[in-house]
Every structure is written in structure tokens, then in C-alpha cells.
Specification:
Elements (H helix, E strand, L loop, with lengths): L3 H66 L8 H18 L6 E8 L10 E5 L6 E4 L6 H9 L13 E4 L4 E10 L2 E5 L2 E9 L2 E12 L1 H16 E2 L2 E2 L1 E6 L7 E4 L14 E4 L5 H8 L4 H8 L22 E3 L7 E6 L4 H71 L5 H32 L8 E3 L1 H12 L9 E6 L6 E3 L1 H18 L5 E9 L4 E8 L20 H6 L7 H11 L3 E7 L3 E9 L1 H5 L5
Parallel strand pairs: 4-14, 17-19
Antiparallel strand pairs: 1-2, 1-8, 2-3, 4-5, 5-8, 6-7, 9-10, 11-12, 11-15, 13-15, 16-18, 19-20, 20-22, 21-22
Helix pairs in contact: 1-4, 1-7, 7-8, 8-12, 9-10, 10-12
Amino acid sequence: MAPPAKRAFLRIALVAALAAVLVLLAVLQYRWSLEISRAERTRIEASLNTSVNQFRQEFYRELTQVSTAFHSDPTAEPDDFWSSYAERYQAWARTATRPDLVANVFVWQAGAPNRDSAARLLQLRLADGEFEAVDWPASLAGLRARVEEEPRQPPGPGPGGAWTLEERIPALVRPIYNISGPRWRRFGGDPRQTEPLAPPARVVLGFAIVELNRAALDHLLGELAQRYFAGPDGFIYNVVVVSGAPDGKVIYRSDPQLTAASLNPPDARAALVPSTPAENRAIEGTPPRDQAARTRGGRGGRGGGNRGTFQPRTRGAFIVPSAAEEPWQLLARHKGGSLESVVAADRRRNLLLSFGVLLLLAVSMALIIVSTQRARRLARLQMEFVAGVSHELRTPVAVICSAADNLAEGFVGGKDQVKEYGALIRNEGRRLAGMIEQILRFAAGESRQASYHLEPVTVSEAIAGVVASVSTLPEAEGFTVEREIEPDLPAVEADAAALTHCLENLILNALKYGGEQRWMRVRAGKSDGGSRVRISVEDRGAGIDPADLPHIFEPFYRGKSAQAAQIHGAGLGLSLARDIAEGMGGRLDASSEPGRGSTFTLELPSAAAEALPRTA
């Protein structure tokens, strides 16, 4: 077996190693949580960007379905433009998923000098599909000057014009063009060798104006926000659609209390309608312009009957924001704050949980170490208890056996000798019975089987009985016992037998440790205004060392001075006395000054106080 010094060193080394492991785990957990939070932020940002793009694509898809329905063929005859719009609207309304998205359909006809016709605004009657001339409504007042001015401008390049989203109205607007095909001429005598004689001519006939239903548009934005920014328990992100104007007018909000300022800075911001053809193709998913051009063929190629023939674009895919105002902006911000704060909160929560686990592990390790130390200490105390009890039991048993042998062998013949031997056997028997009673009471207390029958007990009678019973013990020879009991002292609510045993332990303790002065005093008086009774036992012995005073009520504990003086005992008397006092609703305290003695104070509730009704 290793020496104690080596065992202590090994225990310290083990504790230090475990502490180092815990610190290392804490550092690693901190670093891992940082990496995890970065990855989580990247994931959340990617998910948010995906939701924003899907929101834009879905919104843009709904608008392009409307624009495609009213996208006219620029190569058709001018008179065919107006009749085709009614058919287009009726066909679209039968198959559209959101037919309520269109509020009104207008066509502004530009004046034709050669036909002596004036410009006018036509409105499609949705009920019968006929056009009628109307005055410009107030909702389109800001658009009138622009559409009347644009036909006077020289036509731009390209086969057709993009649809413009006038967010302020809101409406989709597109110029109506008539394009005549190019003229070709042959050269070199080869009919296959041709070149354009003149480029295609484009004439602005007017404008198509599709006014959108604001209520249906709000409903569409709400559905898209619910679809892409909400979870099972509601919105994960606060979503606001605002105009691009400086005032930032709110078009849609996921919560009635939201404002554009409350989402500043947003976690994501994007224009609902792309502002460039490249962004348009990206959000729509159409092939690049150069790829589309390669599929149409070109001049100088060989073969093919369509070589050099213009193929007009018939899709109404391109929608751009109005040049007169900034486009609508989609703003999204996490409901828990910015993404940075949300990720930081998640990291703090993860760190708290992980450090809590480490703390629990550290506490468990500490408890194991403490339990091990206490188990070792308890084992040592139990060995000392067994040795002490064996020694204590051996002495009275030896005296009783010796006295009994003398009586049995007839060595004791006189009456006085027989009486003396009888008193010796009686005292040693009582001493032996007292030690057995102590052990049994301790075992009952440890197994929580001790029970007390509380009833009014007269303090003066209990003290007198205990003093009389211990006065016959050898330890009491030559002791001066003073009693100070206040008159009219109320009875205490206690178990008579348990109270007697408690007082016996306190008085026996004073007898054993009273020192050469061999003096003891028992006091009894009222405390707390008469609601409790205080009983104190004083001696003038050597006192209790301050280092031992906090432990004197622990089972099997004996101070160093008691062990050095070889005072008999098992270290159970004071422990049992305190357990009895607390079991009867009282308390037991000790005070001592080295060299001047000790005082043990027992407080119990008075029977009169127990009889009083309790108030809430």
C-alpha cells in the first residue's frame, strides 16, 4: 500500500488532470461554437437570399403572365391591334390563376395625321369585351403626359418595347408598335445572295395600359410573404415592401406595427422588378441575348430558308421599373433582430448549454471527490467508533464479571460487602445499558425511524429527575451542581423520555469535561417573550478548541483534547442530543472559551405557545 504522502500527491495530480481536461473542453467548445455560429450565419443568409429570390421570381411571374396576355404582335395590321385585346383578355381570364389582378385595361391610340384621326383613350369593358372612349381617369393622370410625348421621339432599336411597371398607379404600360419587314435586293446574279435595302420601320400606334388591382396585389404580396418568410409558428422574418421614393411609402407589411425604419438596417434588400435586361433574364430564367441570337441564324450563313428573315419577339417577358420613380423594394429582417444578433443569441444559448453541461460535470466530479473523502473519513470514524465502543463495553462487562465471580466463589461474605458489590454491578450495568441505548438511538435516527410523542412536560421536574439519576454515577462524585430555574416557568411541548435522554447527555458531557473544578450549573428560563424555554448546562472545564467547535455535533467526532486526555466516550452523545432537540421542534447550540468552560443551550417551544391558535 502506498504511503499517505504519495496517495495525497496522486489525488492532487488526478484532480489537476481532471481540471485541465475541463478547461480544454471549455476552450474547444468555445472555438467550435464560434465556427458553428459562422456556418449557421452563412446558412441563414443563403436561405434568406433564396427566399428573397423566390419571392421576386413568383411576383415577377405573376406580372409576366399578365403582360404576356396583352403582348401584341408588332407585325400585325394596325386595325387588328384593338380587336385582339378583347380576345386576349377573355382568354387570359379563363385560365389565369389570379384573374382579379387586372382592374382595368386601357389603350391609348396615338393620332395618325394621314388618317386625320385624333389621339384618344379607350377602355376595355370587361363584361362584353368592347372598347369605349373615356376621359383620362385620376389614377392615370401622371401617366398621360409621358405617353403623349413618347410617340414624338424617334423609335429606339429593337423589335419591340419592354413593359414598364408604374408602381405609383400601379399599372403595366407598353408601347404598341407596328413593324414593317425589311426590303431586300439581290446582287452578284445569285438569288441566294441578298442584302437589306432598308431596315425595318417601326411606328408607335399607342400604348397598352393594364391597371392592376391594388387589393389583389396586396393579397399576392401577403401570400408570397407567408410562403417564403414564415414557419409553422408564424413569420420568421418581418417583411415590408416600400416604394423607392424618399418618403419610403409602405406598400405591404407582414405586421401592422411595422415601418420601414423598424427594419433599418434590413438583413436583405432587393428590388421587386429588375432594372436591367440582364437582371430581367436572370430572374425570369430566359437564355442570354447572344444565345438567342445564335439560334436565329444570320447573314452570310449557308442554306436554310429563313436566312435573313426577322423573327419578332412575341413574349411579354421583359418588365422594367418606371424611369420616373424608384422601383419597389423588398425589405426583410429577422424577428429576433438582425442576423448578427440572432446568431449571437444562438451562440450564447449553445455556449450556456455546453458550459452548463461542463459545470454539471465539474460539480459531479467535485461531489465524487467530496463523497470519497467523506466516505474515507466516515470509515475512519466508524473504525474509531468500533474501537471506542469495544473499549467502553469491555470495562463495565469486565467489572460486572469480576464482581459476579467474587460473589459466586463466596469471597464476599459480609452484608456491607455484598451491598457494595451490588451497587457496583448496578452502576456498571446502568453504564452498559446507557451505551447500548445511545447506539440504538443513533441507529434509529440514521434510519429515520425515531418518533416523538409530544406532550406538556414540566421542565423543573425533568431537570430534577435527570440530576438525581446521574448523581449516583461515579463521574458525579465530588461534583457541585447548581440549579437556577425561573419561577412560573411554562411547560414545554416535548417527549418526556427523549427530553430526559437529551438532558442526560448534556449533563454527562459536563461531568466528563468539567475539569478539576468539578462544578456544573443548570439554568432554565423563558425566551422570545415566553414562547420558548431555554435550558442551559454550563461547566468550568478546559473548554472546546475553536477548530473543534463546528464539528462537536457530528457523529463519532471527538476533539483532539478529549482524545489526548483519554476521556471515554464514542462521540455520539452530543449528536443524539441535537437530533432529539430538532426532532421535537427545538434547537441545541454550544459556546465555549478555551480554559473557561463550555455552555450548551437547549431551546424548546413552550406548551402554552403551542396551544395558541396559529394566524395566517
